[in-house]
């Protein structure tokens, strides 16, 4: 007697979850109106929306570039463009971040595309960390935020490149490829269909984690009292650590973080440099996107190590400049 085929349980996707949330909002519209009028909720909403709106254009640019690399660029190109020795490929890959105008949200899918093309992970990760901090848009914004202080622009570029290269070399020494688990792309029967399939997949996948990271950052932004920062500003060592963690929590786009750093006048210049170096490399939304793109095993190891290296790099460069 033939048995009936087992029915596979269907997993809820993002469309079903969004539809359920919309229905819930409609049903609870009246009680939600009172909650949304609260000042704390309005501040949270403002911060969340600003984070997502800042990051979305660069995320779209990043996934488009990622899809173009995955579909149209042959593997032989990267074999010729980068040195064969991984120890030399790392600084070269980090330096190429100078030519990519974007923020950390766009660099994540691009780094994923580089890994799919067979680039050594150390070089791809060095690019991932360097590109959001040393590209011309970010450096120009830093120069505008710190007028008459070209040392801050130079220090940011040097410290960011140093941290990126060190992390790439650390990965060569200690990293394991089985920590990285890239999601599969949707392939089409033509290159353009493959391009749009890959771009759409990355946009939905990374966009969901961007929203999660933005919500976490907005919550922390509302909950952390400003007086705590003032109490830490008078201690040189603690001020560096405090602004590094503040950069992680605020999750500000690298094109705008220099203006926030410039406003933190109660902190030392080195502490503000740490804010600028750490932010594009480690923050809540970036951690969430790394989990979605490279896997949790990678993110929980890579993010803490990057934070330590970025703070050490900023402190060392700050000691030389100031």
Describe, in short, the structure shown.
This protein has helices at residues 14-27, 29-36, 39-72, 75-81, 86-95, 104-116, 121-134, 136-145, 150-174, 191-223, 226-233, 236-250, 257-263, 269-278, 284-294, 296-321.
Tell me what you see in this structure.
It comes from Saccharothrix variisporea. With 322 residues, this protein is mainly α. It has helices at residues 14-27, 29-36, 39-72, 75-81, 86-95, 104-116, 121-134, 136-145, 150-174, 191-223, 226-233, 236-250, 257-263, 269-278, 284-294, 296-321. It has one domain (41-321). Helix 6 (104-116) packs antiparallel against helix 7 (121-134) and helix 8 crosses helix 9. The protein is globular.
**How many domain units?**
1
Radius of gyration: 21 Å
Distance between the termini: 83 Å
Arithmetic mean of pLDDT: 81
Organism: Saccharothrix variisporea
GO cellular component, one term: plasma membrane
Main location: membrane
Protein name: Permease
How do the helices and strands line up, and which of them pair or pack?
Blueprint: H1 14-27, H2 29-36, H3 39-72, H4 75-81, H5 86-95, H6 104-116, H7 121-134, H8 136-145, H9 150-174, H10 191-223, H11 226-233, H12 236-250, H13 257-263, H14 269-278, H15 284-294, H16 296-321
Helix pairs in contact: 3-6, 3-10, 5-7, 5-9, 6-7, 6-15, 7-9, 8-9, 8-13, 9-14, 9-16, 10-15, 12-14, 13-14, 14-16, 15-16
What key phrases describe this protein's structure?
322 residues; mainly alpha; globular; disordered N terminus; Permease; DUF318
